[in-house]
Write a structure and sequence with these properties.
The chain is an alpha/beta fold. It has helices at about 5-10, 35-45, 50-60, 65-75, 80-95, 110-120, 135-140, 155-175, 190-200; strands at about 20-30, 50, 100-105, 125-130, 180-185. The mean pLDDT is about 95. The structure holds adenosine-5'-diphosphate, cytidine-5'-monophosphate (C5P) and magnesium ion. Pfam families: ADK.
């Protein structure tokens, strides 16, 4: 048995394992409204929002050696190797000073999911899943007007295919572990947020 003094000494030396941060994965097809709703959640519930896509786009802009590879992958709607994305997420988490994160658009495939778990040992508190028809997502993406190179119909179709083939299985994985909180994302922004609020204020979400 460890004495109180030993425990205190360990803590002072920084050898006691730090408390793991709370992570909520925010998933859903391209254009389902993940970024829009995350901004609302940040305002109301004190999370830090980390969009994997935003971090990758910032990495391109920074002129990093991976920039060209990331740019080509995004243009094709393909998923960037986990190693790259996880490093960006870890850095952003460390820099934030917060211990509650909305990780938006990640994990996008099994490789993302398994690698994040391996490297960080973090399990999400739950997974927020924005469910929306392709027809509505396509409409939203084509009128997003943020100058994104991947918001054109050719790339959008590729992104939908990747979502169905690679991202839905991740949602299924968490669904079978009862971690998925599914939100109908087809209604107007304010209505979707009402459903989101119910999840974040639920007494069942102990980790939140
Ligand atoms: P994601 O991050 O999932 O790709 P965004 O939050 O960027 O999606 O939303 C995509 C586009 O759709 C944006 O132009 C946004 O303003 C718009 N949008 C988001 N949610 C809704 C909604 N519930 N109804 C209509 N338009 C929406
Ligand atoms: O989530 P968002 O729509 O911003 O993602 C844009 C693109 O960024 C994806 O289509 C994909 O090419 C890349 N991405 C990725 N891995 C992630 C998230 C995004 O490769 N986990
Ligand atoms: Mg987004």
């Amino acid at each position: 048995m460890e004495t109180v003094l030993e425990a205190a000494t360990k803590e002072a030396n920084g050898t006691v394992a730090e408390k793991k941060p709370t992570v909520v994965f925010v998933l859903g097809g391209p254009g389902s409204g993940k970024g829009t709703q995350c901004a609302n959640i940040v305002q109301h519930f004190g999370y830090t929002h980390l969009s994997a896509g935003d971090l990758l786009r910032a990495e391109i802009k920074s002129g990093s050696e991976n920039g060209t590879m990331i740019q080509n992958m995004i243009k094709e709607g393909k998923i960037v190797p986990s190693e790259v994305t996880i490093k960006l997420l870890q850095r952003a988490m460390a820099e934030s000073g917060n211990d509650k994160f909305l990780i938006d658009g990640f994990p996008r495939n099994e490789e993302n999911r398994a690698a994040f778990e391996d490297v960080t040992k973090i399990e999400p508190a739950f997974v927020l899943f924005f469910d929306c028809s392709e027809e509505e997502m396509e409409r939203r993406l084509l009128s997003r007007n943020q100058g994104r190179e991947d918001d054109n119909i050719e790339t959008i179709r590729k992104r939908f295919k990747v979502f169905l083939e690679s991202s839905l299985p991740v949602i299924e994985h968490y669904n079978s572990r009862e971690k998925v909180r599914k939100i109908d994302a087809a209604s107007p922004v304010e209505e979707v947020f009402e459903s989101v609020k119910v999840v974040f204020t639920s007494k069942d979400e102990k980790a939140v």
